[in-house]
Amino acid sequence: MTLFHFGNCFALAYFPYFITYKCSGLSEYNAFWRCVQAGATYLFVQLCKMLFLATFFPTWEGGAGVYDFIGEFMKATVDLADLLGLHLVMSRNAGKGEYKIMVAAMGWATAELVMSRCIPLWVGARGIEFDWKYIQMSFDSNISLVHYIAMAAVVWMFTRYDLPKSFRLPVAVLLGLCVYKAFLMELFVHVFMLGSWTALLVKAVLTGAISLCSLFLFITLVHSN
Amino acid sequence: MFEEASEVFENMFKSSFPLTFIVFLPAVLILVSPLPAEAAHEFTVYRMQQYDLQGQPYGTRNAILNTEARTVEAEVLSRRCVIMRLLDFSYEKYQKALRQSAGAVVIVLPQNMSTMPQDIVQQFMELEPELLATETIVPVYFALEDDELLSIYKQTHTSSSSQTSASAAEVLLHTATANGFQMVTSGAQSKAVSDWAITSIEGRLAGEGGEDLPTIVLVAHYDSFGVAPWLSYGADSNGSGVSVLLELARLFSRLYSYKRTRAGYNLLFFVSGGGKFNYQGTKRWLEDNLDHTDSSLLQDNVAFVLCLDTLGSGDSLHLHVSKPPKEGSPQHALLRELETVVSGQYPGVKFSMVHKKINLADDTLAWEHERFGIRRLPAFTLSHLDSHRAALRSSIMDVRPHVEMRKLSRNTKIIAEALARVVYNLTEKGAPSDLQIFTDQMQVQEDQLSSLVDWLTAQPRAAQLVDKDSSVVSTLEYHLGRYLKDVRKHYVKADKRDPEFVFYDQLKQTMNAYRVKPAIFDLLLAVCIAAYLGVLYLAVQHFGMLYGVLRRAAQPKSKQH
Q1: Mean pLDDT for chain B?
Q2: Which residues does the UniProt record annotate as the domain Peptidase M28 (chain B) (predicted)?
Q3: Among candidates B237, B164, B231, which has minimal Cα distance to B392?
Q4: B333 and B455 assigned to the same domain
Q5: Pair (B212, B109) in one structural domain
């Protein structure tokens, strides 16, 4: 479409990050440089994942339209590396729990936004052809911000030494959900033949549910002792 | 935040030059990279004719198209690309689009023309010459219908017709839901093709008995004509004439291969090019033979020239003459023999002579024989059409199903029999009127004729598309060479300074239809996004409220632990 359309998509994708950064008080902690470090860790982890995938998961050449359940599951399992990466970032930052979580999640999500959505938006949304998918992509980036904050919180909780025994199971379940969310979404879309808008809605609801649960656990954990 | 960012960047640039390079080079590359062509639909379009004939421009003068699509129902058509379907095409609508200075016209034709109702086909056929009669500034394209294109047409149609009556809210809602289409052609502007050679082919069968034998010339032009060159298959006009000529060449070559059955006439076969452009090939051939050469069959003793034009259907045959033949001339003999054969063997066929004087004031000549008539050679044209103005002679609707093989082979038989009676002088020798020469092994082979017509209509043969190396020409040459002697090609190139004909390129292009939204949609979207971001800002600002609610909900539970 036009540059204006690109501006629209860009605003929709980036402003929530900016708002979150400003309102969460991260800017007062001088956290910018730490966020950049988190982003660098993201890049490193992705590179490792890619190398691993390319080495051990050769491209599956099945017929078109056939869903490779096992293969996709194994690929999603590689996303466990993200958890390690987030843990790495948080362990190198000293500070309060919220601060650590926010820095890691913001840096991580922003790095993802820059690396995986910037170029498609620039190339696609400026083209002559109009497509809703760029608006959807921008919404998706908002969802993924929430997703990474929840994920960082769960990782943080999981790695605490003073985690009560009763918390172990729900936190582990949430961890699993965070890692396999993309896989579950794909499965959903494939099984129920969801349209792009419905899929986005389902994703938003799923992410919302996960993050509410983890927020609840977090609050309980922080204020219980 | 920005101060920190700028500090970070400054440090980065100071410390390492290569890093700067890594950051900025991709950025520059992205900025200057061309936009990819990712079209909703891509289809082939065929441009309307564009040519100059004797300095007079015809057809569309433009090839570049980059505008939004509309149908005729829309109120404003200026600088829009107007899409029409053949089903509801009319000259008034076309004129309306042009009057409102439309940016372009795209006419969507059905995949298979023969499935169209006859009256629509007939109506379009009549319109074709009118579309070409004057020059059109805007590009006019023809496209063949497919499901995607049909859906584009329908969406454009609904959006065009709903614009006329709606409230502001409806229009707003409409802009968000409906799709507009930007039509873009990929090719460059059309330009004149220089040094285009039109090819004609001649071949002969030499008669027996002396030096100065009379010559019978058989002529048919092979090129086709229609409103769009790439769509003109010219089955009846003049695929039928060429196939009859080739079949006659085959039949008479068998007769002429034995000394005993060789007649006292030379037979000269000529397949001419550029027939739809005022018979350019024939004109040059005559000039070459009559003005430049010392000895030629055409100079010495021409009995008559028989031109074959449009013989593939109908139950009548018309012999078009520009001067009624004199009693006793070979011309008159052929007329009489044709009458004899028709009345004796095919009483169902109506045969008549049509007399029309050559009108030199006209832009174009009516029939091919007039080219010979101007050079004082006795000539006529045989056709099932009673007038040279018949729309069938220059239509894209003239496709393979128009030619009825049974009638084509019957006409071939009539011509062959009449010619044989002339060359062997059978009537004066007292042969009965129902004597059949071409029977048994010598008979007209309908399947061969049929395959000839199939081959001729397998590709468009417009004069702009058949160059001197094209398969049409080489196959024709090969086919004539099998039966005839001295097969030669003749080329016509337009004069550089004062060209008689000029052809233009870009006749076939790829058109892209991009889905687009109007500018108002972007504004609407911007407002929606601003509202969304506002809500989001408020939500993040008041995150503490959610936190508090959850904390209160969690506290009693946590005490239980």
Answers
A1: 86
A2: 214-369
A3: B237
A4: yes
A5: no
Instruction: Tell how strand B316-321 and strand B350-355 pair up.
Output: parallel
Assigned token pair, B171: 């229009």
* Of B374, B498, B503, residue with least CA distance to B54: B498
The total domain count for chain A is: 1
- B 176-195 residues inside an 8 A Cβ radius of A: 179, 182, 184
Q: % helix / strand / coil in chain A, to the nearest 5?
A: 80, 0, 20
Search chain B and give the residue with CA nearest A12: B529
**Domain check: are B427 and B289 in the same one?**
yes
What pLDDT score was predicted for residue A162? 79
Say yes or no: B327 and B396 in one domain: yes
Our CA-based measurement puts residue A141 at a distance from the nearest CA of chain B, in whole angstroms, of: 13
Q: How far apart are CA A60 and CA B54, in angstroms?
A: 65
Residue B102 CA to residue B112 CA, distance in Å, equals: 28
In a domain, B265, yes or no: yes
Q: Are residue B379 and residue B434 in the same domain, yes or no? A: yes
Using one digit for the tens of pLDDT, what is the confidence trace for B142-168? 999 999 899 899 988 888 776 555 677
CB contact under 8 A, B536 and A21: no
Same domain, B105 and B237: no
Residue pairs spanning A and B at CB distance below 8 A: 99
- Asked if residue B219 lies in contact with residue B200, where contact means CB atoms within 8 angstroms, the answer is no
**Mean pLDDT, rounded, for B188-209:** 90
Q: Is residue A63 part of a domain?
A: no
What's the pLDDT at A61?
60
A119 min Cα distance to partner chain B (Å): 8
The verdict on residue B281 lying in a domain is: yes
Shared domain check, B233 and B92: no
Asked whether residue A21 is domain-assigned, the answer is: yes
Give chain B positions within 8 Å (CB) of A223. Answer: 551, 554-555, 558
Domain with B251 in it: 197-493
Tell me the nearest-neighbour CA distance from B275 into chain A, angstroms.
44
Domain match, B282 and B341 both: yes
How far, in Å, are A22, B109, B560 from residue B548 at the CA level? 21, 68, 19
Domain that holds residue A147: 3-56+69-224
Q: Is B30 on the interface with A (CB under 8 A)?
A: yes
Q: How confident is the model at residue B558 (pLDDT cuts 50, 70, 90)?
A: very low
B242, part of any domain: yes
Q: Cβ contacts (< 8 Å) between A8 and chain B: which residues? A: 522, 525-526, 529
